[in-house]
Amino acid sequence: MTLEMRRLGSSGMEITSVGFGAWAIGGGGWAYGWGPQDDEASVRSILHAVDAGVNWVDTAAIYGLGHSEEVVGEALRRIPAVDRPLVFTKGGMIPDPARPFEEPQRNLQPASIRAEVEASLRRLGVERIDLYQFHWPDRTGTPVEDSWGEMARLVDEGKVRAVGVCNFDVALLDRAEAVRHVDSLQPPFSMIRRDSGADVIPWAHAHGTGVIVYSPMQSGILTDSFSAERVARMAEDDWRPRHPQFREPALSRNLALRDALRPIAERHGTTVSAVAVAWTLAWPGVSGAIVGARSPEQVDGWVAAGSTSLTPEEMLAVGRAIEQTGAGSGPVHPLTAEARR
Length: 341
Known about the structure:
- This protein has an eight-stranded parallel beta barrel, surrounded by six helices. It has a two-stranded antiparallel ribbon with strand order 1-2. Strands 6-7 form a two-stranded antiparallel sheet.
- The protein has a single domain (15-340), classed as NADP-dependent oxidoreductase domain (TIM Barrel).
- The radius of gyration is 19 Å and the shape is globular.
- It has helices at 39-51, 67-77, 110-124, 144-156, 170-179, 200-207, 228-232, 250-260, 262-268, 272-281, 296-302, 312-325, 334-340, and strands at residues 5-7, 14-16, 18-21, 56-58, 86-91, 93-94, 105-106, 129-134, 160-166, 184-186, 210-213, 288-292.
- By secondary structure, the chain is of the alpha/beta class.
- α2 links the parallel β4 and β5 (86-91).
- α1 (39-51) crosses α2 and α8 packs antiparallel against α12.
């Protein structure tokens, strides 16, 4: 299998169209954890993805309160330097270690950003981060111009290679772009959560900003074996059962959409997971999709998305299935997104 390569905007980096997402391998014990996770299984999953051709890993300081970055760092130490994947991480979510289940502070003050970059460099065991991203917009009152100016300085100093943002709206993107080019944007995007296709993804496409979408399988719903029974069995510190998309009435609509993908998956000789991810990659402006895995077998479930192209007819069929099931929100097809602009 040969994974498709795409440019990450104008950053100069070429990335595989699918990347390894390290949210879940941060484990449980914090506000947005996924329950218990075996670290050795996590390392094997990263190594398996790299062996399959994946050339980037996306993590964040908040995942497991630093633990995900430590696990990624351990995996990097087991990979020969010439084969190491690009490392993307994120900052700006500051937890209270004494209250790990409380909402982290969204802090993009320049001094805090710099301290987080230094901590991430240590945990990852690297000399430079390939892509450093703001995880969420600031809530301390810090102007984005001040925050983004600090990111520009970190690039100039060689601590990070490129800089991006996650979960920004168009207004914030415009303000950041006026200070320094935004190399990448990371929005939520899946067949269920489609709103980014109407605004920020087209903005990025028009401005030469790379887009790496997160949760393209809607955190597990758009996978072959997902079920309501699985939700009921999730650990107490797994965030998903508390989310509306994992509860009725949305869950039944989402699973009906998942089932509608099975004929497309059968035609391609692949999984529903791969079809769900390939759908996000078919949107103009999308450079890559971040896909999580907690085991090597889960990597095998989605890696084929990096070499799967949906036909125009299949894209229309997915749009019809979305409309019939009533799953999620946002434009159902790239052409409908263009018509809204």
